[in-house]
Design a protein that fits this description.
Chain A: Its main location: membrane. Chain A: This is Peptide/nickel transport system ATP-binding protein. The complex is a heterodimer of chains A (about 270) and B (about 280). Chain A has about 270 residues and is of the alpha/beta class. Helix content of chain A is about 45%, strand content about 25%. Chain A contains eleven helices and ten strands. The longest helix of chain A is centred in the last third of the chain and has 20 residues, at about 245-265. The termini of chain A are far apart. Chain B has a single domain (about 20-35, about 65-280), classed as MetI-like (MetI-like fold). The relative contact order of chain B is 0.16. The chains are: A alpha/beta (about 270), B mainly alpha (about 280).
Chain lengths: ~270, ~280
């Protein structure tokens, strides 16, 4: 069953520049697709366009069907029904993705309350559960804290808990590990991997890092300058990249890895 | 506590901040107290001219009397009531109208945004005095007219500020994040946008309070404020002008109180900025 069906998606800036050009891909229920490319290749815009959240002035054409709802040109009312229920997003920078003046617990409670209608004590319990699921220590303290009072890794876990609290069919992860320390990155990826598997959620994983994408996803779509360059199973792309750009991407990832090998003591 | 200990202000610095707030509260509080007491008790009736003309301080009249023999302290007390009412009333109008307009303007796009911005700019450029004269001409010279004029003029300033603040918050990731989880626009504004513009807004409103008090004094100096016998500080200044050299108390008393109230309110605004600013609050924890 196709959960997300993007066909001929084109995003234009206010001045008429084409930022995403005739992009097509699908994500089936429970499937994981990696969206990879250098910064400015239109990855993030694609995810925003999926939810009808493009910045002011940008327009999208083509077709995006998310769980059967057309989101290109949809009304705000229609879109807000889809958001959260069918797809939720984890953003790159957790500090800016959390309201600085609202306690973290309340921010997680908001989508839970909307979805389940829980209140008071039960709602607090659900928030606690949500925080424990993302393996945060001292959920009660974190629940009462503001975003600036917890560490970067904890913030991103809170953001993940917020997205998962919606119980979406599709989790969109927009460079969720880029702003984190390398040591925390692996943990975060493992966490996303496990939680998504548990829930049989589909994932659209956006990253510029081939190594990160290949850890979490089954299939990958390579983007450059707003266009799809190559699409296929992760191991095929890594082993036998067909396009020039993909080859360069794989080569540079390998180069980094071999540099590590050379430096590590044998 | 995260790793931002380096930024934690020392204790002395923080207490100096709250000192600003305390001094401001004391200054404004004294005048607020005078205003509140004036509702229940005044030394003399407002039209009691038994004191003899231009009597000096003392002899049953704490500050002396004016040229008609009315008690100056009584006038100063009613004046502080009028000043506080003018400040509060104008800021209330400015806050309600300004925030509503500002939020709407922030959401408006294209030509509507341009039109609203131009309208606000014209309203800001429009002299408050002229606006007050128009309103007085349409209604009558009452305190209400003055408050309405000042409030309207200030709401444009507040609206322009709110528009910018809201636009800045709307561009933040956490608004997008809230919307991706399905939060509706009204809810986002109520729970995410307004709390985040609140610190800046409340400081600005405190400043507007001081400006409103000054503006009301100016209007009543010109005879566009509260009508006699309710003495407002502005009219007291105007009436005492001719006799300033012989009986300075009539001008000094309202003048000094006016300055104290405005300084007090501005200090409160300053203190609020330091305690409410998320950037400083971030370091307190």
């Amino acid at each position: 069953m196709t959960l997300l069906d993007v066909r001929g998606l084109t995003v234009r800036a206010a001045d008429g520049r084409t930022l995403v050009d005739d992009l097509s891909f699908t994500v089936a229920g429970g499937e994981r697709l990696g969206l990879i490319g250098e910064s400015g290749s239109g990855k993030s815009l694609t995810t925003l366009a999926v939810l009808g959240l493009l910045p002011d002035g940008m327009t999208s054409t083509g077709s995006v069907e998310l769980a059967g709802t057309q989101t290109v040109g949809a009304t705000e009312k229609r879109l807000s029904a889809v958001r959260g229920r069918d797809a939720a997003v984890v953003f790159q920078e957790p500090l800016t993705a959390l309201d600085p003046l609202m306690r973290l617990g309340r921010q997680i409670a908001e989508p839970i309350a909307r979805r389940t209608g829980l209140r008071g004590k039960q709602l607090r319990g659900a928030v606690r559960d949500a925080l424990e699921k993302v393996r945060l220590p001292e959920p009660d303290r974190i629940s009462r804290a503001f975003a600036h009072e917890v560490s970067g890794g904890q913030r991103q876990r809170v953001a993940l808990a917020m997205a998962l609290a919606c119980e979406p069919k599709l989790l969109i992860a927009d460079e969720p590990t880029t702003a984190l320390d390398v040591s925390v990155q692996a943990e975060m990826l493992e966490l996303i991997d496990g939680l998504v598997q548990e829930r049989e959620m589909a994932v659209l994983f956006v990253s510029h890092d081939l190594a990160v994408v290949s850890r979490v996803t089954d299939r990958v779509l390579v983007m450059k300058d707003g266009r799809a360059v190559e699409q296929g199973a992760v191991h095929d792309i890594v082993r036998a990249p067909r396009e020039e750009y993909t080859r360069a991407l794989v080569a540079s990832a390998r180069q980094l890895e071999s540099a590590l090998d050379l430096r590590s003591p044998r | 506590m995260t790793g931002t200990d380096l930024l934690t202000p020392t204790k002395g610095r923080r207490s100096r901040r709250s000192a600003t707030l305390v001094v401001g509260c004391v200054l404004a509080g004294v005048i607020a107290l005078l205003a509140v007491v004036s509702f229940f008790w005044l030394p003399y009736d407002a039209e009691d001219t038994s004191g003899g003309r231009l009597a000096g301080p003392g002899d049953g009249h704490l500050l002396g009397t004016d040229k008609l023999g009315r008690d100056l302290f009584t006038q100063v007390m009613t004046g502080s009531r009028i000043a506080v009412e003018a400040g509060a009333g104008s800021v209330f109008i400015a806050a309600v109208l300004g925030v509503t307009l500002g939020v709407l303007a922030a959401f408006a796009q294209g030509w509507l945004d341009d039109t609203l911005s131009a309208f606000l700019d014209i309203l800001i450029a429009f002299p408050t005095l002229l606006l007050a004269m128009l309103i007085v001409a349409a209604r009558s010279a009452t305190l209400g007219s003055a408050i309405l004029a000042i409030g309207l003029a200030q709401s444009a300033v507040v609206a322009r500020l709110v528009r910018i603040l809201v636009k800045r918050v709307l561009a933040q990731d956490y608004i997008t994040a809230a919307r991706t989880s399905g939060t509706s626009w009204p809810r986002s504004v109520l729970f995410h946008v307004l709390p985040n513009i609140w610190p800046t807004l409340v400081v600005n409103l405190a400043l507007q309070f001081g400006l409103a008090v000054l503006a009301e004094a100016g209007l009543s100096y010109l005879g566009l404020g509260a009508p006699p016998p309710n003495a407002s500080w502005g009219r007291m200044l105007q009436e005492a002008q001719a006799t300033f050299t012989t009986a300075p108390a009539g001008a000094l008393a309202p003048g000094i109180l006016l300055v104290l109230l405005v300084i007090g309110v501005n200090l409160i605004a300053d203190g609020l900025r330091d305690t409410l600013d998320p950037a400083t609050r971030r370091r307190r924890t």
